[in-house]
Inverse folding.
């Protein structure tokens, strides 16, 4: 069945059924606006969109994973503030000849992410469009205050969650469109298609008052670190050997070359700064996390810029290739 | 100058400067998420998008008016709940060859609407896209509870704010692309391009506990009334002669034919039901509003459906043409 047979209101009903309503929702999908309870004195509010042919390509991305990822990238923004996501809106632009089964798959992935992170879909809107476009807005709480990009100080240590660069390699692998993948390839592809926003870690860092500045890695470590440095008026020194790389990454690249970890986007890991005097508290806390947290460098004076330093103490020159949507 | 020269971060800075930050904003544009104060126990949350060639055409729509309208259509959804808008996010997809002056014009219209209705732009995201696309999400308060679509009862009177059908005529006029317009044409075109969300009226109705059900007219009176009737499990009788038409409408159409008022969308007026026993309280309240409020019919039993009745008591058959984005 095609979307044109289902119609706009059939589509909305389908989405409503696929995504169960959570607590705090006084009025969900189906009115002019959602009406929800607000349980804390401050809120976080973010939006991100994924557009076909710009952010994803249906030739190598499954609809189910796209549903997951659309929500996950937004949850990652809440995680990067140390917040707790609560509600979200979905704005869908879909071609009229879209298959209803594909919409079902998309809803399934979306519902999996919503359930995993405890957020409720409360409204949105749908429209016909030439290409698939997904916009999500998330509202969350900042129960322990928000961790901004701007609080970093010279001398603070820099940390990263998880491993970096897997997503960029995963995209390379997916683009090959091979039917069979080795296990490491499947792992890397899944890191691209189903990122895990680090909500628990972000929230815990806020609760313990450990991080002075934080960002999630969506455009690539160097580019996102640049944002962090600019906001905090500092520079950064990154130790290339300390950058956390997965076994799959090392096996796929064949050596310990961190280039994909430095420039590859869409890892949705957190990068944050912690004053050295709090390092031991962070070490104790790290044991509670399922995801590893690695020290990758430190903040230095702004005039030193961002430098990548190898184990011999040499500064490594890295071609900057962070993403600007409008640069030709 | 083109957008490709300005770059993504130049664009974001431009938008930030054009839209001053209001109260309650702890952290606006420039971090992973906005951080705002929440001053009431419940919130409204809505999103709506305008896509080039689907919702607007730059051949006959000015960028400044588009900026206004993008926000206004969202504020209208908050108005339709009886709410008070507070903060919004802007998600922009822009072609890379877009002129920077046109972005300035868009920001100007957007800032005018934000200032008029006291809402703060707190974040968003930007991306390159083939055609211009604007998604806005608004967060507001429901200080007096929300007026749902579902609270209507048989016997409740139906009211509409302002005048209906002007926007559909305005679009007809704009499509002609004439350089010179008569005064009535300018009025109708402006009703299409710069709708006035009825936030004050909606909020007052909620405060006084007068309306049992409410919706804003975005898809056309009949279609939106159908939503209201379905949610409230009632039918409706509309008196065709009672439908409020502007002088410009009557002059342009040349007679009192309400067809554009019945089927034309994008008026962004409110339609709401009030129990007859509260009619006198509403009459007293109406005097306080700058915008007229007209009684246009009443809710009847669901099995009677929606009927349009003329002054002779005859049922008028109206070709239904409400909009479904996915019907071919």
């Amino acid at each position: 069945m095609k979307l044109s047979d289902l119609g706009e209101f059939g589509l909305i009903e389908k989405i409503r059924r696929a995504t169960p309503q959570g607590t705090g929702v006084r009025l969900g999908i189906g009115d002019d606006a959602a009406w929800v309870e607000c349980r804390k004195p401050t809120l976080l509010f973010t939006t991100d969109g994924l557009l076909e042919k710009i952010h994803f390509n249906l030739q190598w991305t499954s609809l189910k994973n796209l549903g997951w990822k659309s929500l996950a990238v937004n949850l990652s923004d809440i995680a990067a503030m140390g917040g707790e996501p609560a509600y979200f809106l979905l704005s869908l632009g879909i071609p009229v000849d879209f298959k209803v089964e594909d919409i079902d798959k998309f809803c399934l992935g979306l519902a999996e992410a919503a359930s995993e992170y405890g957020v409720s879909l409360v409204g949105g809107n749908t429209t016909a469009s030439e290409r698939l476009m997904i916009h999500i807005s998330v509202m969350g709480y900042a129960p322990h205050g928000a961790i901004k990009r701007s609080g970093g100080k010279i001398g603070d240590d820099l940390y990263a969650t998880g491993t970096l660069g897997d997503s960029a390699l995963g995209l390379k692998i997916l683009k090959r469109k091979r039917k069979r993948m080795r296990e490491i390839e499947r792992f890397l592809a899944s890191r691209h298609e189903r990122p895990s926003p680090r909500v628990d870690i972000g929230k815990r860092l806020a609760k313990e008052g450990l991080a002075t500045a934080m960002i999630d890695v969506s455009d690539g470590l160097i580019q996102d670190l640049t944002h962090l440095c600019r906001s905090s008026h500092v520079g950064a020194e990154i130790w290339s050997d300390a950058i956390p790389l997965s076994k799959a990454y090392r096996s796929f690249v064949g050596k310990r070359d961190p280039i994909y970890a430095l420039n590859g986007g869409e890892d949705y890991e957190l990068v944050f700064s912690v004053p050295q005097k709090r390092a031991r508290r962070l070490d104790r806390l790290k044991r509670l996390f399922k995801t590893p947290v690695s020290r990758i460098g430190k903040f230095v004076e702004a005039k030193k810029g961002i430098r990548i330093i190898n184990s011999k103490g040499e500064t490594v020159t890295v071609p900057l290739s962070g993403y600007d949507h409008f640069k030709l």
Summary: Residues 27 and 35 of chain A are 5 Å apart (CA to CA). The radius of gyration of chain A is 20 Å.
